[in-house]
Specification:
- 78% of the residues lie in helices and 0% in strands.
- It contains 13 helices and no strands.
- It binds 5-(aminomethyl)-2-methylpyrimidin-4-amine.
- The site of 5-(aminomethyl)-2-methylpyrimidin-4-amine has 8 residues, from α4, α10 and α13.
- Keywords: Hydrolase, Thiamine biosynthesis.
- GO terms for molecular function: thiaminase activity.
- It comes from Rubrobacter tropicus.
């Protein structure tokens, strides 16, 4: 290997295996609707009602990550990320709520998870309860990573000005802070993967790919106004 070449990291390998799912997410009609500003109020409200509950579970899983951590720098990171979800990630929700015409108080009050949101949150909770810290982080990582990549793509494509209804949403997820969060995830996952055995690495990969697929169907849940059939 030359001085400039380096081997592919575990998280780079995962990203490349998940590429067809990422591409399907970028093409998804809900994501295109954010770019084109043409989602209905009902679709936006449906998304925020489920996503608010999803992010509450995300905070709970960070709490489980703390309980599996032995390093203070990891505990500090998960603690900060709970603060990020609670204090910062409410802004993109407020943007969607405003455009939807539904009051945020009503959307925040939803307390029933629809099939897809239930499936995704149970997947992250199961990974957290049954797995190692590395397995847990692989189930969480597609959450910031897919949104960061969506944000970057839409910012580049749309270059939203003040008249774009989802300017705040796009700029929030394209912000370098979200890129930093992704790099912090990747650094930890790569470290944990290098200490993990074959079976644990296989679980890490499975949890990551499942979460990427869940991200994709979460958009469909909102776009198609999914409900329990009975
Ligand atoms: C389902 C989902 N995935 C990711 C994100 C971005 N944190 C989110 N708000 N919701």
């Amino acid at each position: 290997m030359s001085a400039t070449e380096r081997s592919t990291s575990f998280t780079e390998e995962l990203r490349s295996k998940a590429d067809p799912v990422f591409e399907a997410i970028f093409r998804h009609p809900f994501v295109r609707g954010i770019a084109e500003g043409n989602l209905s109020g009902e679709q936006l409200a449906h998304y925020v009602r489920q996503d608010f509950q999803y992010l509450t579970v995300f905070c709970q899983v960070y709490g489980l990550a703390v309980s599996k951590s032995t390093r203070r720098e990891d505990i500090a990171f998960f603690n900060e990320q709970i603060g990020f979800v609670l204090d910062s990630e409410n802004h993109p929700h407020q943007n969607l709520a405003r455009v939807s015409g539904y009051p945020m108080e009503e959307l925040e009050g939803a307390n029933e998870l629809l099939p897809t949101a239930r499936n995704y949150t149970r997947h992250t909770l199961y990974s957290a309860h049954s797995g190692t810290l590395g397995e847990l982080l692989c189930a969480l990582y597609p959450c910031p990573l897919t949104y960061w990549e969506i944000g970057l793509r839409l910012k580049e494509e749309v270059k939203p000005d003040d008249s774009h209804p989802f300017k705040e949403w796009i700029e929030f997820y394209a912000d370098p802070i979200v890129g930093d969060i992704c790099r912090e995830f990747a650094r930890r996952i790569d470290r944990l993967a290098s200490d993990a055995g074959k079976a644990e690495r296989a679980n890490m990969e499975e949890h990551y790919l499942t979460s990427c697929r869940m991200e994709h169907i979460f958009w469909s849940m909102a776009y198609d106004l999914e409900e329990w059939p009975v």
